């Protein structure tokens, strides 16, 4: 998208980063007022500059160590609605292969401090896109399939560099409420920052950076992560004996946001939204049997790289809990993984029990089962069943979306 520059723009060149900010005064000392297209307080420009420099220093230093940008990057500050009336948000684009940034000339924070934080986060976010498109230009035919990882990295940099600000929480309400949305779905681009944060805790920032910098031109982010994963680490695996990063790690641990021992520990996020949304919750007494619908038109469904949570509370007197997952996929061909987690009264993870193929199963469907023999009501508050679709194919058949399954549970 070409952007026209006005010779009357005020120029603000940064000393420690190759960005030039262009803007106009809303109420100039002389000449025509700019209204909504002008800046009322030049402190906003300085804050944008601080955010751009902050990101530039971080990206060109270890552990990122990205190549320095060898050209001036234009940053236009204006009323974004004049360019994108349908979505007047900050953005990064290219003009003949050269990236540029557009930032809003005013914010609507209730205080100067709120405006300062928002402006810092916005500048950091957009400057991350500039660095990313040095390696993967927006004009590349493969850029669309990297859009979700690009946004995830930008949100992660906000989280990492501006630790006293939680603006990214705006994106995470849907992450909490819709765990059944695929990781790389376009509606979940910003939410995927949580996945990047988890990956960095498990494999380090250097690994996340390698995914972007060392991926092959035609690879997707998922394919690059799978290929570059350290020996002994798998991104996804439906094998109950393999503790993969996505299902056994990211999806399961994301239930334990308030557990200090969880790699997904995020107490501020937990305080704001609580636990991730469950699909269904049950209270079982001894002799009870419960489950989801077996009607083919009403069975639970799950898309690739997504999960669902089922919760079981046990009344006093229950000595044993049995849980099953039934799927029409042939044994050995299923992308679904199911793990039962015992949760303490402090809402911490006690143990994980994988659902394994039933030894006496003679049908053509997948039948996974687990049994808890020792129930300690004084210690265990509830059990969480995490069902994850470990498939990664969404565009070409046979695809991994819309996988149907049935949950059954019984108590003795």
Question: In CATH terms, what is the architecture of the domain at 1-139?
Answer: 3-Layer(aba) Sandwich
By CATH reckoning, the class of the domain at 1-139 would read Alpha Beta
Q: What is the beta-strand fraction?
A: 15-25%
What's the order of the H and E elements? EEHEEEHHHHHHHHEEEEEEEEEEE
Mean pLDDT, nearest integer? 92
Structure classification? alpha+beta
Put simply, the count of helices is 9
- Compute the number of strand runs: 16
Please tell me what the overall shape is. elongated
Sheet of most strands: 6 strands, antiparallel
Helix content: 25-40%
Give unreliable regions as ranges.
none
User: Termini separation (Å)?
Assistant: 65 Å
As for the CATH topology of the domain at 1-139, it is Glutaredoxin
Main features:
9 helices, Jelly Rolls, 24% strand, single chain, alpha+beta, five-stranded mixed sheet
Question: Mind sketching the topology for me?
Answer:
Elements: E1 10-13, E2 19-23, H1 43-59, E3 73-78, E4 91-95, E5 98-104, H2 112-135, H3 147-161, H4 169-177, H5 193-203, H6 205-213, H7 221-228, H8 246-253, H9 267-273, E6 280-284, E7 289-291, E8 300-302, E9 306-314, E10 321-327, E11 336-344, E12 349-354, E13 356-357, E14 366-372, E15 380-389, E16 403-411
Parallel strand pairs: 2-3, 3-5, 6-9
Antiparallel strand pairs: 1-2, 4-5, 7-16, 8-16, 9-15, 10-14, 10-16, 11-12, 11-15, 13-14
């Amino acid at each position: 998208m070409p952007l026209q520059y006005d010779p009357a723009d005020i120029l603000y060149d940064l000393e420690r980063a190759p960005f030039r900010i262009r803007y106009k005064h809303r109420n100039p000392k002389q000449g025509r007022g700019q209204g909504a297209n002008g800046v009322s307080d030049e402190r906003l420009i300085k804050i944008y500059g601080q955010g751009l420099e902050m990101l530039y220093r971080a990206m060109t230093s270890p552990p990122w160590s990205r190549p320095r940008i060898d050209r001036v990057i234009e940053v236009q500050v204006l009323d974004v609605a004049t360019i994108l009336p349908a979505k007047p948000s900050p953005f990064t684009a290219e003009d003949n292969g050269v990236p540029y940034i557009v930032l809003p000339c005013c914010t609507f924070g209730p205080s100067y401090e709120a405006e300062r934080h928002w402006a810092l986060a916005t500048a950091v976010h957009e400057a991350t896109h500039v660095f990313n498109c040095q390696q993967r230009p927006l004009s590349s035919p493969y850029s669309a399939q990297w859009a979700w990882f690009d946004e995830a990295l930008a949100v992660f940099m906000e989280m990492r560099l501006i630790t006293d600000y939680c603006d990214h929480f705006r994106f995470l309400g849907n992450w909490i409420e819709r765990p059944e949305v695929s990781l790389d779905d376009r509606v979940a681009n910003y939410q995927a920052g949580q996945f990047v944060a988890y990956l960095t805790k498990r494999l380090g920032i250097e690994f996340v950076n390698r995914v972007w910098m060392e991926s092959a031109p035609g690879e997707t982010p998922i394919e690059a992560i799978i290929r570059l994963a350290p020996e002994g680490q798998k991104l996804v695996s439906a094998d109950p004996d393999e503790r993969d990063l996505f299902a056994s790690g990211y999806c399961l641990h994301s239930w334990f946001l308030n557990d200090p021992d969880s790699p997904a520990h995020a107490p501020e996020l937990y305080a704001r939204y609580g636990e991730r949304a469950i699909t269904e919750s049950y209270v079982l007494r001894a002799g009870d049997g419960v489950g989801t619908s077996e009607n083919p038109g009403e069975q639970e469904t799950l898309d690739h790289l997504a999960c669902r949570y089922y919760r079981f509370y046990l009344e006093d007197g229950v000595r044993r809990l049995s849980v099953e997952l039934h799927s029409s996929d042939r044994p050995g061909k299923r992308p679904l993984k199911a793990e039962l987690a015992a949760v303490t009264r402090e809402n911490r993870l006690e143990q994980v029990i994988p659902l394994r193929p039933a030894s006496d199963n003679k049908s053509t469907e997948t039948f996974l089962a687990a049994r808890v023999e020792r129930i300690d009501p004084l210690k265990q508050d509830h059990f969480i069943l995490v069902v994850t679709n470990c498939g990664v194919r969404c565009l070409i058949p046979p695809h991994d979306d819309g996988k149907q399954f049935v949950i059954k549970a019984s108590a003795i």
